[in-house]
Amino acid sequence: MLIILLGPPGAGKGTQADRIVKNHGLVYISTGDILRKAVKEESSLGRKAQEFMDQGQLVPDNLVVEIVRERLKEPDCLNGALLDGFPRTVEQAVFLENVLPEIEAAIDQVLLIEVEENELVERLTGRRVCCDCGANYHVKYKSPKVRNVCDQCGGDLYQRDDDTLTTVKERLEVYKKQTEPLIEFYQERDLLYTVDGNKEIDEVNEQINNVLKEL
Ligand code: ADP
Ligand code: ADP
Ligand code: ZN
Question: Does the reported pTM lie above 0.85?
Answer without folding.
Answer: yes
